């Protein structure tokens, strides 16, 4: 059973079982699902490494995807206040860029986005839950400061049950509200795909908020229906 997305009147924080599990794809689909009621919702990627120089400045592919899925369309510098060029861990990328990531700057950008979207801001973290956002800033610090429930994106592949259970425990141990999980098929389904899902439903705490199929290059707007429940 898929429960579907809760109301999230004040937005949510999205994390993953690891890097490369489709947090941004799931986040973009979530934004489209949240906006089905006609109300605004915007995305935010506070710290993003792996950016390209453009005439407008440094831009990150994930942050641009969240911006595109947002309504109203916020300015990029609010969506991604820290755009770091090197495609590596945020702490390393910030050091290489000579940038000091500061929590007050992120909170100010979030407040501006919340004012535009009636409070509904989806904030995507970087990598997995225990990957720091910056020196001295854990993902839990930001989720707590914003008082946001945490949604866990599980990359459906071998080993995901262990990673998902460990992450869910860590979220709760850090004093954050764990709102549930979304399964994202980052690989073509194998012969035991249904059994893996059943194990996740049985052993992973919290409701399943949606299941996203393996559709390389898929449209998040079209797949938002997979988060509707049923």
From TrEMBL:
It comes from the Bacteria. Keywords: ATP-binding, Biotin biosynthesis, Cytoplasm, Ligase, Magnesium, Metal-binding, Nucleotide-binding. One of its GO terms (cellular component) is cytosol. Substrate binds at residue 49. ATP binds at residues 20-25, 62, 124-127, 213-215. CDD domains: DTBS. Its cofactor is Mg(2+). Mg(2+) binds at residues 24, 62, 124. Its main location: cytoplasm. Transmembrane segments: none annotated. It is found in: Cytoplasm. Homodimer. Belongs to the dethiobiotin synthetase family. This is ATP-dependent dethiobiotin synthetase BioD.
């Amino acid at each position: 059973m898929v429960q579907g997305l809760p109301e999230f009147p004040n937005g949510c924080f999205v994390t993953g079982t690891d890097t490369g599990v489709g947090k941004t794809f799931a986040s973009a689909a979530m934004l489209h699902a949240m906006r089905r009621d006609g109300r605004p919702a915007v995305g935010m990627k506070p710290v993003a490494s792996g950016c390209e120089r453009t005439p407008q400045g440094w831009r990150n592919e994930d942050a641009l995807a969240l911006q595109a899925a947002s309504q109203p369309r916020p300015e990029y510098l609010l969506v991604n206040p820290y755009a770091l060029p090197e495609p590596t861990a945020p702490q390393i990328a910030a050091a290489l860029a000579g940038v000091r990531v500061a929590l007050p700057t992120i909170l100010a950008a979030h407040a501006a986005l919340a004012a535009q979207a009636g409070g509904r801001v989806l904030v995507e973290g970087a990598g997995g839950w225990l990957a720091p956002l910056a020196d001295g800033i854990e993902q839990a610090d930001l989720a707590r400061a914003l008082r946001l429930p945490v949604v866990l994106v599980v990359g459906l592949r071998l080993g995901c049950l262990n990673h998902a259970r460990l992450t869910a425990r860590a979220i709760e141990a850090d004093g954050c509200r764990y709102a549930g999980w979304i399964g994202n098929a980052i690989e073509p389904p194998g012969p035991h795909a249904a059994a893996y899902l059943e194990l996740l439903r049985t052993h992973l705490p919290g409701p399943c908020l949606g299941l996203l199929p393996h559709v390389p290059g898929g449209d998040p707007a079209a797949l938002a229906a997979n988060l509707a429940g049923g």
